[in-house]
Amino acid sequence: MILTISLLLIVIWGKRQHTRSSSNEPAICRQIIAGVLRSTEKQQPNTLSPHQSKAIANRHLPIAFGIDNAFTRTDSVHASMFVEKVKPLINLSAEQWHSVSEFARVTTSHWIEHGFPGLDHSCGSSCHKEKQKPDCNRINVASLAQILSLKVVLWLMFDKKTQDQTCDENLLNLAQSINRVWISSKLKATENDIPRFEDDIPLQTSLVNIFGKHNHPEDNPLNLILPSFETMWRVMLRSFLEIRFGTGKEVPEWRETMIAFAKKPTKKQFDAGSRYPPSLSIPGPSMDDTRGGQSSPSANYIVRESLRLYAPTRHVHRAYQWNQGTGASHEMMSADIEGCHTMSDIWGSDADRFNPKRWFVFTPAQGDAFMPFGCPPFECPAKPTFGPRMVGVLVGSLLTAVGG
Ligand SMILES: *[C@@H]1O[C@H](CO)[C@@H](O)[C@H](O)[C@H]1NC(C)=O
């Protein structure tokens, strides 16, 4: 009996802490993210400030990762200071774009040809002591996407050019620790369930191995790494798979467009639709083009379509408190970005299909619904240039390395 009651209490308590409503209506999502949605019944305003709404919804991040950045700050001054600090770091010059892309291509090709860090272990242990050459042609593409994104982030944001293989193993350890904690810290009902950074020796060790010790949360390298790496590698991986093995399998122009962009990562090249002389165009039924004439979608459109179908952040959560005086229970509201990106009444009956050509023509409603980098006032500073172009560079590099 007591057990039943306590179970019941746990359920109720869990619910109180955890009430969640979700919307895939773009206009509502924008309000949810901004922290200004009014309550359904009485149209009451949120008593939490927009930054509080955001920080409370992200409260697991400082606990699990020991960070202190724009995602975790309740005051707008510090949050915008962080964003201002990041802006120059991601404002790359033409030369920087060029060298980061070359770096990505060389690194990836090297891995594909000579094997990949971390693979040695799995080869070594699974092949026992036989002299047989381990099957190092097998590459874990997810690990590759992670470590490549991480390398690029380290290079650009921490001025760390990591070349050697031992470093790669550290990076892979860090990437895997981050992902482990990222997943295990999500959507916990109470703070006690959230894994704690102080207790996570593997995560701390992999950080120290690369950056040395830091003493304050505001100096934690993860402040910069989490928002860049954790979102980028997933989009990059999904985009690569889609272009190389999915829908794009039948459309070699997409690959070539991405490879050409990685080779020449300029704005002009990003927006260039690749055109083929008629003799080279692919005959057959593939991807009948009804919207864009004879031009093939630009790298920009291919990346945009990747960001639509594989949104970097699928749900954005915000804490709401509408009734003053009803205790400290928050309601969690979530903006279903993935839903906004795939609603068929906005995107058409092929909403679930990867079709970069849809971007030749798009409606205002689609513009409103497309929020891969969030929306004001919390728009990601990587939205205008850095994010899309970096995804393009990384995907293009990966395609180059596997030989198109
Ligand atoms: C990026 O840097 C250039 C100079 O390197 C500067 O002119 C430009 O205003 C910067 N852009 C942003 C958005 O900060």
Automatic annotation (TrEMBL):
Gene3D superfamilies reported for this sequence: Cytochrome P450
The entry's keywords: Signal
GO MF annotations in UniProt: heme binding; iron ion binding; monooxygenase activity; oxidoreductase activity, acting on paired donors, with incorporation or reduction of molecular oxygen
Xref: SUPFAM superfamilies: Cytochrome P450
First and last residue of the signal peptide: 1-21
InterPro entries the record matches: Cyt_P450_sf
Keyword Oxidoreductase attributed: no
Region ranges (Disordered): 269-296
Protein name, per record: Cytochrome P450
Naturally occurring in which organism (per UniProt): Penicillium desertorum
Organism classification: Eukaryota, Fungi, Dikarya, Ascomycota, Pezizomycotina
